[in-house]
Design goal:
The complex is a heterodimer of chains A (about 80) and B (about 280).
Chain A (H helix, E strand, L loop, with lengths): L1 E6 L1 H6 L8 E5 L6 H8 L6 E6 L2 E3 L10 E6 L5
Parallel strand pairs in A: 1-5
Antiparallel strand pairs in A: 1-2, 3-4, 3-5
Chain B lengths: L6 H7 L1 E5 L2 E6 L1 H11 L3 H10 L3 E2 L6 H13 L2 E5 L3 H13 L3 E5 L24 H12 L4 E5 L8 H4 L5 E4 L4 H14 L3 E7 L2 E7 L23 H4 L4 H19 L8 E6 L4 E6 L1
Parallel strand pairs in B: 2-3, 4-5, 4-7, 5-6, 7-8
Antiparallel strand pairs in B: 1-2, 8-9, 9-10, 10-11
Helix pairs in contact in B: 2-3, 3-4, 5-6, 5-10
The chains are: A alpha+beta (about 80), B alpha/beta (about 280).
């Protein structure tokens, strides 16, 4: 099934390997959670702060559905 | 305190000026000082009286189109506390002063060092080694000597914050760790005062406005928080010049809304901006 993904540009660069785009569509297996997606994308889990689906904050345990728009946002604390 | 300056005296020293599509009778700062010295009131009290009498102080002329005379008077009668005088707090303090927020308390335990030069307001070669809060205070008074500005060169803690937040109408977050921010949020809730938050990392920023009793930053604390992880991705991507300045501007725009009771704030949602690809998200808290 297809989902739209937005990875914060700084997280995209820190991914292993680095992601070329910060916004893209991709296919995932049914039953894939956001936690799984973060691992598939190689995004360092410790740098992830919030995740949203369709603009609503959610947990990384959430299982994705066809057409979901996921955003993976870093934890930031600088001043 | 009512100020005993007759409106006719103010009018005598006023000049006419077009501003924001209207003709105003305006008072220069020297005229306000003259009226203050003749009446025994402070320049700030005279300024408020002038605004309430329909006169426009020239130093706030460019604020009037958005604030109006009464909004400006409300800011002059307000007291803001800025916790942290680094990249966010220094810039936020400057903007609060330029808006004419009458009382500003700046709290920071640190001195400026060379790594602050790229972004922190009022950090210059000449101020290296000096307490940030003191340097900010001096500069704010240079911007607007009518304001009441206080510097506290201490770390904000659960012990001193109850006193320091007393009388605050709004608190501006200029901190740099989640632990300190959660403590500040808790203390603001106890003091019954609104906290305006922002944080930055690299080319991303976030901002929200937290009213007493709301979950605010607790709702976005990562699961790893409390396991010694109080800092975010900024440790790896740094703090460039522009991002804290933008975030501080957003904080002060929010603070002005809180103080004047106008506009729609970021209450209940976190603004997240990724400048690199211009993603703007609002995350419900």
């Amino acid at each position: 099934m297809d989902v739209d993904v937005k990875v914060a540009t700084m997280l995209a660069r820190k991914a292993d390997p680095p992601l070329e785009e910060s916004r893209f569509g991709m296919s995932v297996e049914p039953g894939t959670s956001i936690e799984d997606l973060i691992a598939i994308l190689g995004v360092p889990r410790s740098l992830v702060g919030s995740v949203t689906v369709n603009k609503k904050r959610t947990t990384t345990e959430r299982v994705l559905e066809e057409g979901d728009a996921v955003a993976i946002i870093p934890s930031i604390s600088g001043g | 305190m009512p100020v005993n300056v007759p409106l006719e005296e103010m009018e005598r020293l006023a000049t006419e000026r077009e501003e924001a599509g209207r003709t105003f009778r305006c008072l220069s700062s020297p005229a306000i000082v003259e009226l203050a010295s003749a009446s025994g009131a402070s320049p700030r009290e005279v300024t408020v009286a002038a605004l309430r009498g329909g006169l426009l102080p020239l130093r706030y002329a460019k604020n009037v189109g958005t604030l109006g005379l009464e909004g400006q008077a409300m800011l002059l009668e307000s007291h803001a506390v800025v916790v942290g005088a680094g990249g966010l707090g220094g810039r936020a303090s400057e903007l609060l002063a330029r808006y004419g927020v009458g009382g500003i308390l700046v709290i920071d335990p640190d001195v400026f060092d060379e790594t602050n030069l790229n972004r922190q307001g009022f950090c210059c070669d000449g101020s290296l080694g000096r307490p940030k809060a003191e340097v900010v205070r001096e500069n704010l008074l240079d911007i607007d000597g009518f304001l009441e500005v206080t510097a506290v060169v201490e770390r904000a803690t659960a012990s001193n914050l109850p006193d320091l937040l007393g009388g605050a109408d709004v608190v501006v977050d200029g901190l740099d760790s989640l632990d300190d921010r959660l403590l500040l949020q808790e203390q603001c809730a106890l003091a019954g005062v609104v906290l305006v938050h922002a944080a930055i990392a690299g080319t991303t920023l976030q901002a929200t406005t937290i009213y007493p009793g709301e979950d605010g930053l607790r709702s976005i604390a990562p699961p790893s928080h409390g396991a010694g992880k109080s800092r975010g991705i900024e440790v790896e991507v740094g703090n460039p010049a522009s991002t804290p300045a933008v975030a501080a501007s957003i904080e002060v725009l929010e603070a002005v809304k809180v103080l004047t009771g106008t506009g729609e704030t970021l209450r209940g949602r976190m603004l997240y901006v990724d400048v690199d690809d211009w993603t703007v998200e609002f995350i419900d808290l």
